[in-house]
Amino acid sequence: MAQNSPTQPALSWTVVGQGAIGLLAASRFKLAGWPVQLWLRQPAALDIRFEQHPLHFNCATAPLAAVLIPVKSYAVPAAVQALLPALAPDAQLVLSHNGMAATEHILSSLSPAQGLWFLTTTHGALKQGATVRHTGQGQSVLSPLNAAAKNQLLAVQQAMDIALGPVTLTGNILPFLWHKLAINAAINPLTALNNCNNGELAKAQYQPLISQILAEVCQVAEAAGYPLQYAQMLEKVQQVIQNTAANFSSMQQDIAHSRRTEIDAITGYIVTQAARYNIAVPLNTQLLQQVLQLQHRG
Ligand SMILES: NC(=O)C1=CN([C@@H]2O[C@H](COP(=O)(O)OP(=O)(O)OC[C@H]3O[C@@H](n4cnc5c(N)ncnc54)[C@H](OP(=O)(O)O)[C@@H]3O)[C@@H](O)[C@H]2O)C=CC1
Ligand SMILES: CC(C)(CO)C(=O)C(=O)O
Questions:
Q1: Active centre residues (catalytic)
Q2: Residue pair 72/78 in contact by the 8 Å Cβ criterion
Q3: Cys-Cys link to 138, which of 5, 71, 123, 282 (CB 3.0-4.6 A)?
């Protein structure tokens, strides 16, 4: 898509939370010499170890010019609500999470000069205590969601290239979100329910389930106007299973640590959309119910 002239000044970035992806991004900013601060639930500075580097992050101070919000899908509305009074009049906000983005309410709560973005990433990060590791080299797709974001294309793209790049800029994030949704719908619930790593899903017993999940997702995606090729998705899911064989999915980890999962924004979104288009998705419906049951028990 068209870009602004390369004269936009660098923005000063704030990262929300002290999660794995947020600290990966903040560390990469810091190691590249960019100023970056953290917005935590309780305002404070933070010291971490990122790979072999001890890093210190200052506590965020308003007004916030540019904010990366890599929180779980269900935590986004409250996080944005808390940020609103601290935002600069022309602040840029970048949401980043798994599952489908729900941005209508956020867009209407911003003032006309405040930009909203979505970034989806295949980077992997793990936080254990105060140590953060970059567990999977990935890439990201970034999209402006309103006119105020389009005025800052170059500055935000450059920053996200540092934080979670390499970044591809797109005018429409939805095809990319459906693609990632299909991968997460196939892997996350099965690993959570069977308490296994991603690699286990290569076993023969899981193949009919993966095929059916994807067949259902492809039908819904097509009805929603974002067609996915079933054979390509099946191959992609097998690739992700192989490439992340030793990893535990985010949903498996959430269940294992008795945390809320992102099932509502992944399988839940598929089931809701299926109902809208009158499509039967029996396996995704069953997986949604099973994960919700497991989550409520935890
Ligand atoms: N980790 C990974 O490798 C990958 C993750 N993703 C996705 O990226 C998103 C983030 O992942 P991850 O970093 O693992 O998630 P985490 O849950 O580890 O990190 C989110 C952080 O944000 C904090 N937070 C939430 N709400 C607020 C708030 N209102 N104010 C301040 N802090 C807040 C959380 O705090 P608290 O714990 O107190 O709620 C937590 O520290 C998820 O959607 C995930 O699925 C995508 C690709 C890879
Ligand atoms: C791609 C996958 C399944 C990698 O584990 C993931 O995104 C997750 O765990 O949420």
A1: 180
A2: no
A3: 123
User: Could you give the ipTM of this predicted complex?
Assistant: 0.98
Ligand 1, pocket residues at CB < 6 Å: 16-22, 39-41, 70-73, 75, 78-79, 82, 96-98, 121, 124-125, 250, 262
Could you report the per-residue pLDDT of 232-270, keeping only the tens digit for each? Answer: 999 999 999 999 999 999 999 999 999 999 999 999 999
Long-range contacts of 234-240 (CB under 8 A, 24+ apart): 234/210, 236/179, 236/182, 236/183, 237/182, 237/183, 237/186, 237/187, 237/210, 238/202, 240/183, 240/187, 240/198
Domains parsed from the chain with CATH numbers? 13-171 (3.40.50.720), 175-297 (1.10.1040.10)
Mutate to test the pocket of ligand 1, among 46, 71, 198 (most ligand atoms within 8 A of CB): 71
Q: What is the pTM of this model?
A: 0.96
| 41-72 tens-digit pLDDT | 999 999 999 999 999 999 999 999 999 999 99
Ligand 1 mean position, distance from CA 15 (Å): 11
Number of residues that make up the chain: 298
Q: Please state, in angstroms and rounded to a whole number, the distance separating the CA atoms of residues 158 and 34.
A: 11
User: What is the rounded distance in angstroms from the CA atom of residue 90 to the CA atom of residue 193?
Assistant: 44
